[in-house]
Amino acid sequence: MLPSRRLIIMILTAVPIFLIGAVFKPLVVVGVVYLLMLIAFIIADALMLPRRRQFTITRIVPERISLAAPTCIKLQVHNASRRRVEICLAEDPPETIETQPAQCIGIFDPGADGTLEYQLLARRRGRYQLCNLDVRVLPSMGLFYRQFRLAVPVEIHVFPNLVNLKQYELLLRRGLTYEQGLARMRRIGQGSEFESLMLYAEGDDMSRVDWKATAKRAELVVKNYQPERQQSVLVAIDVGRATAGEFEGISRLDYLVNAALMLAYVTLRQGDWFSLVAFSDRIESYLPPIRRVQSIERVAKALYELQPRLVESDYGAACRFIGLKNRKRSLICLMTDVIDRQASDVILSYLARFARRHLAMAVTLANPHIRTLAETPLTKTPDPYSKAVALDVLMARKEALAAMRLSGVDVLDTNPGALTPDLINRYLLIKSTRRL
Question: Which CATH number does the domain housing residue 101 bear?
Answer without folding.
Answer: 2.60.40.10
